[in-house]
Amino acid sequence: xxxxxxxxxxxxxxxxxxxxxxxxxxxxxxxxxxxxxxxxxxxxxxxxxxxxxxxxxxxxxxxxxxxxxxxxxxxxxxxxxxxxxxxxxxxxxxxxxxxxxxxxxxxxxxxxxxxxxxxxxxxxxxxxxxxxxxxxxxxxxxxxxxxxxxxxxxxxxxxxxxxxxxxxxxxxxxxxxxxxxxxxxxxxxxxxxxxxxxxxxxxxxxxxxxxxxxxxxxxxxxxxxxxxxxxxxxxxxxxxxxxxxxxxxxxxxxxxxxxxxxxxxxxxxxxxxxxxxxxxxxxxxxxxxxxxxxxxxxxxxxxxxxxxxxxxxxxxxxxxxxxxxxxxxxxxxxxxxxxxxxxxxxxxxxxxxxxxxxxxxxxxxxxxxxxxxxxxxxxxxxxxxxxxxxxxxxxxxxxxxxxxxxxxxxxxxxxxxxxxxxxxxxxxxxxxxxxxxxxxxxxxxxxxxxxxxxxxxxxxxxxxxxxxxxxxxxxxxxxxxxxxxxxxxxxxxxxxxxxxxxxxxxxxxxx
Length: 511
Fold this sequence. Notes:
Elements: E1 2-3, H1 12-19, H2 27-32, H3 40-49, E2 55-57, H4 64-68, E3 78-84, H5 88-100, E4 105-108, E5 122-127, E6 134-136, E7 142-146, H6 151-159, E8 163-164, H7 176-180, E9 198-204, E10 210-213, H8 219-228, E11 234-241, E12 243-244, E13 249-257, H9 262-273, E14 282-290, E15 300-307, H10 313-318, H11 320-323, E16 329-336, E17 358-362, H12 371-387, E18 395-401, H13 404-407, E19 424-431, H14 439-455, H15 475-479, H16 483-496
Parallel strand pairs: 3-5, 4-5
Antiparallel strand pairs: 1-2, 2-3, 6-7, 7-11, 8-12, 9-10, 9-11, 13-15, 13-16, 14-15, 14-18, 17-19, 18-19
Helix pairs in contact: 9-12, 12-14
């Protein structure tokens, strides 16, 4: 392990080579990726051009396993070195070094990428976790976040100051990663997606240059980074809007049902959500199929409603239809926003955040629930569990956020392709091993479930939230069906990343 706090800066000739310009790799080298072997000499050379207390882990270092641990055990990039910068300028220096020596690079915030594209990577990992500073601006209208800040850090820091921002519902992921793909979350009914409220981005481009990106500076990148940002650069920090929260409490109610209530629950949820007209006073309603101790033969149907404020008579009245559907349990929680993700299993120690597992995932966006389709998906779940009870950790999740704020922004103003989808879905078989013999069964089950969701809306083309995409979805499903949109993205790739350096997260130009 090399740490710049104890390693003197040397190798002047190497530094001077960056001053006269970079030699980018050829197309063949980009396809083959790393030609030059990465070894202890590489660690020493790279350390010599970095300026901060940056740490470099090689495969033989004790901290390497922790540095390269990922959420998805079954999707492992081949990391030759893991570099953990402690200042933003070192990110550019790492990219410059990698380019000079024809080594591929890959930036991670918290290591939660779901896409299979990551498994194609071989090279240097740029681990942003030490870039974790948060600073609220004096006017309390925006805050600056470095690229390694994860969602809980942002939520907790802002909550302690009586503020909130737009972020996702898993506390263990970064705030930045989801934002680059749009960023759905509990604030979207009032305010919009996370990306809708980014004010400035500090970015390292494929050639190693550091640039500022906003509405007036590099406006073409400004458009691209909000929705397809993983394809265009490494965001070392960004500034985003924040809003007063004033330490208020939030009412969360969770119901549990069994099979006999299934269809009625989905009918009631369709009425509650109103095909995209849910009042933003309701942050979201989430549904889940999963096995619990309520039954060993059929999935429990869990539905959680999150209200923007403390429990009121009006909120209780709105949920009366669900009280009448024979729930097996009803649980009310009064929580600060700091802990808002806990009731939906998205806390740091929640089941959604458990690291180093294998996951067979899939997704499809919806506008409303097709009740017949949902019943078929539920029956398929129970059928698979009866045949393979070892798959009992499987979750079929549906997320019905309020969407008024999302629809208040014009689709053409950013690379976010779809603003008329009202429901996100997430299929996830969780396994302990990447070599589990039931993986083919899980993949077949996943494919059948996604096919059912899409078949249940026959007049719509399949769409997929890019941050939930597994990598097998069509480019159009992830980035939009309008020809002008994909052409604009491709043109920007040709301009800013002609060698396709950023091709490891649902790439616009596949490797």
